[in-house]
Design a protein that fits this description.
The complex is a heterodimer of chains A (279) and B (260).
Chain A: H1 5-8, H2 11-14, H3 17-47, H4 55-95, H5 100-114, H6 118-128, E1 132-135, E2 138-141, H7 144-170, H8 173-181, H9 186-216, H10 228-238, H11 246-278
Antiparallel strand pairs in A: 1-2
Helix pairs in contact in A: 3-11, 4-5, 4-7, 4-9, 4-10, 4-11, 5-7, 6-7, 7-9, 8-9, 9-11, 10-11
Chain B: E1 22-31, E2 34-44, E3 49-53, H1 60-67, E4 75-80, E5 83-84, H2 92-98, E6 99-102, H3 114-125, H4 130-143, H5 159-171, E7 177-181, H6 189-204, E8 208-212, H7 216-222, E9 225-230, E10 233-238, H8 240-245, H9 250-259
Classes of the chains: A mainly alpha (279), B alpha/beta (260).
Amino acid sequence: MLRLRDAFSLPLVSASEGALRNWRRTERAGLAVLLVIFVCSSAYAATVVSGHDPIPVVLWRWAPLLLWGFLFNLIISALSMAVGTAAGLPLGIMQMSPNPLVSRPARLVTQFFRNAPWLVLLFICVLLLPFEFRVFGLRIPFPDWAKAVIGFALPAMANVAEIVRGAVQSVPSGQWESAESLCFSRRQTMMQIILPQCVKRMLPPWMNLYSLITMSSVNASVVGVNEMLTITTQVHAAEGSRPELLAPLYSFALVCFFIYSYPIGRWTEYLERKYQVKE
Amino acid sequence: MTEIVLPKPEPSAAGPSGRPLISLRDVHKSFGSVQVINGVSLDVARGQTICIIGPSGSGKSTLIRCINALVPINSGSIKVDGIEVNDPKLDKLALRRKVGIVFQQYNLFPHKTALQNIMMAPVTVLKQDKVEVEARAHALLKKVRLSGKEQAYPGELSGGQQQRVAIARALAMRPDIMLFDEVTAALDPETKKEVLYTIQDLAKEGMTCIVVTHEMGFAREVADHVYFTEGGVIVEHAPPAEFFGKAKDPRTREFLSQVL
């Protein structure tokens, strides 16, 4: 067994006392700063005497729609990461193939998508992919959000490929040597001995990448996908584009992303520390 | 090592069948421009235990890696039970089933228990019956005095224990020959003993062993023949009594004076 259960235990349970205090302090500080921004902007806006609804009421009214948009960000990023991982794993392994006909193209593809700006890839996918596919006379629609998933999946794939390559190469060569002496084929060695050891090593950078993809999923608003940022802009317009609403509305988006990404970041750090000590 | 006097078979280059089990002829190996093995010839009969000693970098580890084709040689011939290793059409699987190897750094699979480490190759590579392999694995753990450690992960075992699991793992393939590459070099004196006793048991049972080691006491006691290598060549070889008693070559004498 991989004993992954350890990896999924919460940092709160097994972190040492000092680390725990440290963790809580940083967390409180971060949240406090955000709260201050939020409250100040709201208070400022509330002082503006006008015939409009007060800010909390506006936020309350639009919160379901805004959160719906946020959910869309999460879906886009999760799907992108799933597609990117499914494609990146074999790509990473292909990079290490002893056959140059396999490894060279794999390396080229990886380097190409790793060094391309994410927004450009997104534009290319959304603007150049067809809006529907025809298979045997059947029309399969291909909406913008699905194109955006491909757009984010491409850099995710290249980064996952590099994570896989790095993890595999960090396994001591003695593992390969002993597997070879025990008659394992290259494929058997990779699948049964090397990759299972890599899961632990790959998890922190993989989570880090997921966090980055989540945050950059708002880029999809540039190409008109109905995610949180797009909806926030539309809500602002619907409320008559009142300038005092700018700060609270966009802060709301910020806070949503922060609340989601911060624990992932902390957990990643915790896993990194944990595996560093053990290996 | 404590002094244990063992009954030893008469060392002879040829076994009962007249043909040595392992036969090296004029083996050469270089890494780039560095010549590591420079014309080595030696024979090992079935049931014999030989020790290879010599300073670091003298090509000892490379030499035994050549025997199971982990390292390809440049020229010469290595025959293992009739199989020519230096052959592009070599059936590596057939060769490696005959030759087990144990490394200095144990190289156990850290994500598998001791029992799984031993069972993995026979079950997944040789497709042997799982129940039968498991019974054998238990017996092997008992043989290396590690009964009760079946479910322990390598990280939970001491260096000496890990090395004995590694020996059991190699034995699970039922090899005819065991190669040991400085298997005690990373161990403290106390745990060294456990591992050396295990190898000694194997040699006593008639396993053909090639042991690269710095343990002179072990070589003196267990080996049928001792080889001293330096600079990729065999400088001197003799039965242990003669080798340690009256070495002829000045380089051997100097090396022995430093380590004894």
